[in-house]
Amino acid sequence: MLDFSGGSQRGISILENWQEELKRTVTTLAALQTILQLNEAEEEAIAKCRDFPLKVTRFYLSLLEPGNGEDPLRKMVIPGKNEWIQVYDEMVDPTGDTASLKHDVLNERMIHKYPDRVLLLTNALCAGHCRFCFRKRVFSEQTAPLNGENLREIVAYIKHNTGIQEVILSGGDPLMMSDDALFDILDHLRRISSHLVIRIHSRMPAWLPHRLTPDFATLLKSMKPLWFVTHFNHPREISSEAITGLIRLSEAGIPLLNQSVLLAGINDSVRVQTGLCLSLIQNGIQPYYLHHLDRALGTSRFRLTVNEGIQIMKGLRGTVPGYSIPRYMLDMPDGSGKVPLEYPYLHYENEQTIVENLDGHRQQWRD
Ligand SMILES: *Cc1c(COP(=O)(O)O)cnc(C)c1O
Ligand code: SF4
Predict the structure, then answer these.
(1) Within its chain, how far is the Cα of 167 from the centroid?
(2) What does DSSP say about strands 226-230 and 197-201: parallel, antiparallel, or unpaired?
């Protein structure tokens, strides 16, 4: 069995009340230094990253391996090299959420890219800042949580566009809102139709799983059909506390999916991806998407080529159960949407259909 249990600093005490604990989130160099020993490069990067500052929960820090400067979890949250300069063709809005008029942007709070589903930016807050974030731009805007006027307009839009089958709550992180504020949004949506599918995207199970309280599970249970999508990038992020919280959601009948981002130096090996796939299915979470990194400003140190990603995906096929393999996705910068990337097992040569098997041997397939 693959074992990813590291020597984490489980000595850090976490308050049961998640809202109180969030007030203790680490946002300054001085506060971080009381918990972690930093090197000079990290200190310099923290000082320079004012546009997308250091932010990490104490719970997440408790998962880090003390003294390991190469810890993948550390690299996801501690600012680093090239974060404050633009390299290659990095951009502010790398998935074209605002760039293109091919889809409607309502008050810049709703993105309607695909005919059947809309995505709502519920707020512009996360419990921590992932250094590779693709939606960094929203954090520099003063965006209030969705409510009142915005919500009425969104409800009217969804009612008017009868092709919309699903509403995705994203952000920021919808779980930064209180249960009451979240109830208000969910209730507005549920009143549109009992069939409308609601999907919540959240990284809170990694940042502070204490957010997944029994009351929260009860709230989601009352709003079905509802799918919950976690964001774990490394098996060590799936803590025992996260499992406890997610079991509450499973027991409430909420299907769980996971999306992650393929990141150089973090999870760019078949070994780590295998560990992630297995840990997810062991805990009842279906791997959904593995995103190719978007070209957001300052994320060059996490970059891989599409081919490197494809080779990792190829390594998973036949190694882990088929249903534990996520789709590898590229989100196009022009706003035209996500495209699945696949290793080409199927070839057409001289009007023949050629199939490559898992050993790399090519055989002709006769239709
Ligand atoms: C990713 C995304 C969705 C959801 O796409 P799925 O393929 O259904 O997961 C919807 N709207 C926007 C704008 C997105 O970026
Ligand atoms: S949780 Fe998502 S939106 Fe929030 S900082 Fe991380 S990548 Fe960005």
Answers:
(1) 17
(2) parallel
271/19 Cα distance (integer angstroms): 36
H or E element in which residue 120 lies? strand 117-121
User: Which residue's alpha carbon is at the smallest distance from atom 1 of ligand 1?
Assistant: 338
pLDDT single digits (tens) 270-306: 999 999 999 999 999 999 999 999 999 999 999 999 9
Q: Which one-letter DSSP state was computed for residue 265? A: T
Instruction: Output DSSP code: residue 237.
Output: G
- Ligand 1 centre distance from Cα of residue 114 (Å): 7
Ligand 2 nearest-atom number relative to CA 132: 7
CA dist 84 and 98 (Å) reads 22
Write out pLDDT tens, residues 124-181: 899 999 999 988 877 766 677 887 788 999 999 999 999 999 999 998 899 999 999 9
DSSP 162: T
Report d(CA 268, CA 63) in Å as an integer. 20
Residue appearing with tokens 């074992």: 3
pLDDT of residue 314: 97
Q: Atom 6 of ligand 2 has which residue's CA nearest to it?
A: 130
The pLDDT, as a whole number, for residue 9 is 62
The position carrying tokens 């249970």 is 221
Choice from 123, 173, 177, 237 to test ligand 2 binding pocket (greatest atom count within 8 A of CB): 173
- Of 25, 130, 211, 294, the one to substitute when testing ligand 2's pocket (max ligand atoms within 8 A of C-beta) is 130
